[in-house]
Design goal:
heterotrimer; A mainly alpha (305); B alpha+beta (381); C mainly alpha (294); B: alpha+beta; Rossmann fold; OB fold (Dihydrolipoamide Acetyltransferase, E2P); 2 domains; 6-stranded antiparallel sheet; 22% helix; 32% strand; C: 294 residues; mainly alpha; 71% helix; 0% strand
Chain lengths: 305, 381, 294
């Protein structure tokens, strides 16, 4: 630009504090966007296409897949095994994410809220440890804990011979997933609770509010955004969680066959890639619905604010 | 020469906010200049536009005769001290002070020496190896100043230099800052929302509102003769009393009393005209007895401010006693404070009363809309 | 709380009667809180018990019990052909992914934080949501296909790239939060002194957000270290398989699981992430900085 000329494009639109400029900023974005596009967006879109074909891992349809339209979808929706699996998945999300992780996570965060010292550190350390240990190790720990003959749990309860994984497979994986994932909710709520101003709680206490009333009237309105974001994330994570496969592998008799396990069995063990993709796409749609419901609720909060 | 000249400087943000509105201003070489105004008046934008951190939407800026309007901040030969000092927390004090020299590619040893030298001038030698987090607010400010000084810029820009200090330290830092500026003689522009700070520090002050400059002048000028009611209300630790007045028979009818029309306005008012009468609380004398040419009212509040008290009086409004009366504040020296409920009289000191028409000062001087810029900082001395 | 409802309504005129009630209620609440926390502690500690005892037991069972102390199990582990190499594989995958994710996410987060890109918040939220939805599980079929076509089956690079793609949105999100909370005055200050954008990145931004970079790096390592599905799908030869996959094969394949091997391997495999966690939490405190704002 000529010095002294009126800068036409002068209005710098943002606090571009380092003077990066648009070109460089775009350059900074490209590597991430390429990876995300290639390994996140493309597979998502590809799922839609594959779901319309009779593509198989092996055999004739592997070499020359045919478009079969919505056949896979009508077949899935008519399939008893799919519908059972869907119900099991919803139970799994509701039980282990919404009630288990979020509920327990909040309870722990609230019980520890104004506490410091060894008790808090020990409790937090154990909860976090169960979160960060590798899933295949954790899965075996639970297999060992719940073992029918020599499991620690049966030994403790004095009821040897109770086959938890065979008799109560869903309950087992729900408790397993609660154990495994509570840390995230606990930390998020701990951070959220710190954001509730002390003066608000004290005002409520001075007005004579009980703990429950304080929670309802002061804490929850304040952390509603955190609660919803947390529920959104853990619901999606749990919905797509493959770790229960490591414990029950969907069994016995498909009684703990949640959708991710079902897709794996149909598509990669059974080789029906097209049908598997169709189910995957239905999963994506359900995820999207879950996400939209939560975002809707978040949005409503914003309007009110 | 490092005078700063701005012509028709305009800044419009993408959201349509006009932060600077065709602004003309000249700051003389070596001057200590304050940009004063309430938040959102554009003073910080103006400072950042001089620094080059904001790009002007129109008009131009010259520093030392050089058009810098389109130069990036690093090429303008200015140094800026930010409100939060922006000391890099991961560098020692010495590295912080040496940072501008590092950018100028000075070798490690000489820039270390130069930084130590600058630190010595500001009494920071003992702190050279500390990190900013270990310093007090006042020390941090000195380090920030040292960093700005290290590269010998033509212009210092200070954004709210005292606002991050606590009240007691602020006075100390104010004196220090004024002395430093005198010694260095570098053109310095600072932004503040605190009128007392501007009055105390600056050679000249520009009072801003809504992206425009409402008055430029020495502290004495803006204090004694605010060019408009905005400046009158903004300058002074207690705002100026502004009371409705009407011209009758060559006199002013104010709150039921007749007062003489100020000399400078005498030839410029016409009978029956409605004006605003202004007088600072400091220029009113309180009396418990009736006095000639006095405004009277009932004492409602007495605020003790140490060696003096601020007394608020409610006065009957002249024409319609039913409407709530006008209020007047007056500074009363210690020992003569009235009690709330007393009736008191106040007499304006001669030559200190002002008249405003449509918010602008009525005076014999040229209209103050485009103040003439000074050419030297010593005009005041 | 229940004491409040049981209190008879009569003694409203007896203010002295309130005192002990409040004290008792407070005490009950305290006891309740401790009981709850101890139960939580038990629940979370119980499954971990076995991991600390079995590896040192010369005849481990699946029951957690006081071990007959021995280190023989670790010697046996060294003889297993895949055990140590799988740990090495896990290190490759974790280090490669973490390096990629931290570098790319830092660049992207900085650009998004400091330069207004139209619709950046929507973009970021969309991607974050997508990455939560499109995990390996829902897209395992096309991921497998994609890897096949790009010739990335049985390739560690393929696993690294796919894992990075999945982790990047959240990493960008976390880092952008760090960058947003860093005052721009640091960069502006450097800019007034004439520093170029790249100098500002190097001298100012990277040192300032180092805790954020560490957080994301640790988070990526922990994620990859434990990830089972992606290497399980993509890596065919057992000598490339990471510990997560080997661990699974140890207890599912070949009839009776060798508990000595299994327990020792579990411990060795868990130790790095556990140590990393201890290091991070003692150094920075393992917390969210109010991270998720909405």
């Amino acid at each position: 630009m000529v010095e002294g000329a009126r800068p036409v494009t002068g209005a710098s639109p943002a606090p571009d504090a380092a003077g990066l400029g648009r070109a460089r900023a775009t350059g900074f974005l490209v590597p991430s966007m390429v990876l995300i596009l290639l390994f996140l967006v493309v597979p998502a879109v590809w799922t839609i296409y594959l779901g319309l074909t009779n593509y198989r891992l092996t055999g004739l349809a592997a070499a020359n897949p045919q478009i079969v339209g919505l056949d896979n979808y009508t077949r899935a929706l008519g399939d008893e095994r799919f519908r059972t699996s869907l119900v099991l998945t919803l139970q799994f999300v509701l039980g282990s994410a919404v009630i288990g992780q979020a509920g327990l996570g909040f309870a722990i965060a609230f019980a520890l809220r104004d506490r410091s010292g060894p008790l808090r550190r020990v409790v937090e350390a154990f909860v976090l440890l169960s979160w960060i240990l590798p899933s295949s190790v954790v899965a075996f720990l639970w297999i060992a804990l719940l073992d029918r003959d020599a499991g620690t749990l049966n030994a403790l309860l004095g009821i040897p011979g109770t086959a938890w994984l065979l008799d109560h497979p869903m309950l087992s994986i729900i408790i397993f997933n609660t154990w495994r994932g509570t840390a995230f909710s606990m930390m998020l709520y701990a951070a959220a609770l710190e954001n509730v101003p002390r003066s608000h709680l004290e005002t409520a206490r001075l007005a004579g509010a009980s703990t429950w009333q304080q929670l309802r009237d002061v804490v929850f309105p304040r952390i509603r955004g955190h609660v919803l974001t947390n529920l959104l994330l853990i619901s999606l994570w749990t919905f797509n969680d493959f770790a229960p496969f490591l414990i029950t592998a969907g069994g016995p008799e498909q009684r703990s066959e949640i959708l991710p396990v079902y897709v794996y069995k149909v598509a990669l063990s059974g080789g029906e890639l097209g049908f598997g993709a169709a189910i995957s796409f239905i999963m994506l749609l359900i995820n999207l619905v879950i996400a939209l419901v939560y975002l809707r609720m978040l949005g409503r909060r914003k309007e009110k604010a | 020469m490092s005078a700063i000249t701005m012509r028709e400087l305009t800044k419009v943000y993408p959201n349509g906010v006009r932060a600077l509105d065709a602004l003309d201003l000249e700051i003389a070489d070596g001057e200590f200049f304050a940009l004063l105004g309430p938040s959102g008046c554009g003073k910080t934008t103006l400072l950042r536009t001089i620094a080059g951190l904001e790009v002007a939407s129109g008009g131009n800026v010259h520093i030392g005769g050089r058009n810098v309007t389109n130069l990036p901040p690093g090429k303008r030969d200015v140094a800026m001290v930010f409100q939060d000092y922006a000391l890099f927390p991961h560098m020692t004090v010495q590295d912080n002070i040496a940072y501008p020299l590092r950018i100028k590619k000075m070798d490690r040893r000489s820039r270390g020496e130069k930084a130590a030298e600058t630190a010595d001038e500001l009494g920071l030698t003992a702190l050279l190896q500390r990190r900013p987090g270990q310093l007090s607010g006042g020390q941090q400010q000195r380090v920030a100043l040292a960093r700005a000084m290290a590269c010998h810029p033509q212009v210092f820009l200070l954004d709210e230099p005292l606002s991050n200090l606590d009240a007691r330290l602020r006075l100390e830092a104010r004196t220090f800052l004024k002395r430093l500026q005198r010694e260095l003689g570098v053109t310095t522009v600072f932004v503040t929302h605190d009128q007392a700070e501007a009055l105390a520090l600056a050679d000249r002050i520009a009072v801003m509102e809504g992206g425009r400059i409402r008055q430029v002048g020495t502290p004495t000028e803006v204090f004694r003769r605010p060019a408009n009611t905005f400046v009158a209300g903004f300058i002074g630790s207690t705002p100026m009393n502004l009371v409705d007045a009407e011209v009758h028979d060559g006199e002013l009818a104010v709150a039921g009393t007749r007062l003489p029309v100020p000399d400078e306005a005498r030839d410029r008012v016409s009978a029956g005209e409605k004006l605003v009468y202004g007088v600072r609380p400091e220029y009113l004398d309180y009396s418990p007895e009736p006095a000639p040419g006095a405004l009277s009212g009932q004492v409602v509040v007495v605020e003790n401010l140490g060696s003096f008290s601020l007394v608020s009086l409610d006065m009957p409004s002249g024409d319609a006693p039913a409407t709530p009366g006008t209020s007047l504040q007056v500074v009363v020296p210690e020992g003569r404070e009235p009690e709330p409920g007393d009736t008191g009289w106040v007499v304006p000191r001669p030559g200190r009363s002002l008249l405003y028409r449509d918010g602008e000062l009525v005076s014999t001087a040229a209209p103050p809309a485009v103040p003439a810029a000074r050419t030297g900082a010593d005009a005041e001395r | 709380m229940s004491t409040a409802t049981r209190t008879p309504p009569a003694p409203a005129t007896d203010p002295a009667g309130e005192g002990p009630t409040i004290a008792v209620r407070h005490l009950l609440a305290q006891i309740g809180r401790y009981v709850f926390l101890c139960a939580v502690l038990g629940f979370f500690a119980l499954p971990l018990l076995w991991l600390t005892t079995a590896p040192f037991d010369d005849t481990p069972t699946v029951t957690a019990s006081l071990p007959q102390f021995t280190l023989d199990n670790f010697r046996a582990l060294l003889d297993n052909p895949y055990a140590l190499s799988s740990l090495r594989n896990s290190v490759y995958l974790a280090a490669g992914t973490a390096a990629l994710v931290v570098t790319f996410a830092a660049l992207a987060a900085y650009a998004l934080s400091r330069v207004r890109v139209p619709g950046r918040d929507a973009l970021l939220y969309g991607l974050l949501l997508l990455s939560s939805i499109v995990t390996g599980t829902a897209t395992m079929v096309p991921l497998f296909e994609l890897a096949f076509r790009l010739n990335l089956i049985d390739s560690r690079l393929g696993v690294i790239l796919i894992l990075s793609g999945g982790l990047l949105p959240a990493a960008i999100f976390i880092l952008k939060d760090f960058m947003d909370s860093t005052p721009t005055s640091y960069e502006e200050s450097a800019r007034v002194f004439g520093a170029s954008p790249l100098q500002i990145m190097r001298h100012i931004v990277v040192p300032l957000v180092r805790p954020g970079l560490a957080t994301v790096g640790v988070w990526a390592v922990a994620n990859v270290w434990g990830n089972f599905l992606v290497p399980f799908l993509l890596l065919r030869s057992p000598d490339k398989a990471p510990a997560a996959v080997i661990m699974y094969t140890l207890y599912t394949e070949g009839g009776q699981a060798d508990l000595r091997l299994l327990s020792t391997f579990s411990l060795l495999y868990s130790l790095p992430v556990a140590l990393m966690f201890v290091f991070v939490s003692s150094r920075y405190g393992f917390r969210f900085h109010g991270g998720i704002k909405r």
